[in-house]
Design brief:
The chain has 159 residues and is α+β, with helices and mostly antiparallel strands. The chain is 36% helix and 28% strand. The N and C termini lie far apart (29 Å).
Length: 159
């Protein structure tokens, strides 16, 4: 199995794929934190403007193997050379195969190429495996960067 990474473009097919992957992430997160999906949906503006959120000043990367989408991750701008890593999502059938780490590394590389100097992310505390992976990649706890109606862990690192 050969994994490749593709940066989505501002085409109808890529926008539909990215929006579908974000929606999968949102549904899984709502179930994981025990929140009503409608509450979570109000926190996810990119479902209504995927291209504006990711593709104009950031990026959205898709991991594929044998032309099958394993997962994705987004990069969105903040201020002063800082970006956020958003919506890291690995489809259940592809977990534990290195796709998450590979996507994180690809996101950091892409963010550097886009001129960002620092990356932040947030993650629900229930995702202990993801948190351990982020820490192994050099992310450390930071002050909160966003407000949520549920607990979150905030991490960041220089690129």
């Amino acid at each position: 199995m050969s994994r490749t990474f593709r940066r989505l473009a501002e085409t109808p097919a890529d926008i539909a794929l990215g929006t579908d992957l974000v929606r999968e992430y949102v549904v899984a997160t709502a179930e994981e934190v025990g929140q009503d999906i409608d509450v979570i949906l109000t926190l996810i503006p990119e479902l209504h403007d995927f291209a504006g959120h990711y593709l104009r000043d950031g990026a959205f990367l898709v991991a594929e193997s044998d032309e099958v989408v394993e997962g994705a991750v987004g990069i969105t701008p903040r201020t002063d050379g800082i970006c956020d890593m958003n919506r890291l999502w690995i489809r259940p059938a592809y977990r534990r195969g290195g796709a998450g780490r590979a996507l994180c590394e690809a996101a950091m590389h892409t963010a550097r190429d886009l001129g960002y100097r620092r990356m932040h992310l947030d993650v629900v505390p229930e995702r202990t495996t993801a948190i351990a992976m982020y820490r192994s990649l050099g992310f450390v706890e930071t002050p909160p960067t966003h407000e949520y109606p549920f607990a979150m862990v905030f991490l960041g690192r220089d690129l």
